[in-house]
Amino acid sequence: MIRILQKSANYVSDLMNGKITEDFYYHNLQHTMEVVEAATEIGKDSNLKPDELEVLLLGAWFHDTGILFDYFLHEEKSIEICREFLLKENFPDKKIDRVAEVIIATKMPHNPSSLLQEIICDADIAHMAYKNFTEKSELLRKEWESLHGKKYSDYDWLQINVDFLTENPFYTEYAHKNWNKRKEKNLKQYQERMRNLYNGFQNNK
Predict the structure, then answer these.
(1) Per-domain residue ranges of the chain
(2) What is the predicted pLDDT for the residue at 205?
(3) Dihedral, 118, 122, 123, 129 alpha carbons, nearest 10
C-alpha cells in the first residue's frame, strides 16, 4: 500500500506542478494534499481496513487531476488519468474500479452511496470547517473569475457561500463530531455579513 500511494503522490505532484497555471488559485496541489490529509484523518477514525484506506487515498490523490484538462467534467477526466496510471502499475482492475467510485463521488452535488464515498465527500469540502474558510473562499472566487471571466459582487459571493454551507452536509460521524460546530460558525458569520451588507445598501438609498 505504501509503495503505490507514494508513487501516486509523486505522479500527481509532478503532473499538477507541471501543468497547472497561476489561474488555479484553489484547485491546486495544496488543495489535493489537504483532501488527502482529511481523508486519512477520517479513514483512520472509521477503522477502515488497509485495502479500503488504500482505495480511498488513491481516490483522494487523483480526484482533481482532470481539472487541468476539463474544468467542468474533471471527475471523469480524473478517472481516466488515474486508471491509466494504475494500469501501468499493474494495480488490480477491480480495485481501480473502486478508486473510480471514490473519485466520481466528489462530483457536485454530492450523493454518496458507501462509506468510502462519504469520507471523500467530507474530505473534499472539509474547508467548510476551517478557520480560514474565508481565505479559501476568496481563492475560489479568484479562480472562477480568472478562468470563467465572470465577476461576482460581494453580496452575490456571500450568497453563494451561504448556499454552499447550507446545502452541503457532512456525512461521516467523525466530521459531524469534529467539524460541524466550526462549519456552523462560518455559516453564521457569512449570514451576518450578508445582513450587514444588505442593511448598508438600504441605508444608502
Answers:
(1) 2-203
(2) 60
(3) -170
Note the pLDDT of residue 201.
62
Q: Please state the pTM of the whole predicted model.
A: 0.94
- Domain 2-203, what fold? Hypothetical protein af1432 (1.10.3210)
Mean pLDDT of 16-26: 92
Query: Please, which pLDDT band fits residue 19 given cuts at 50, 70 and 90?
Result: confident
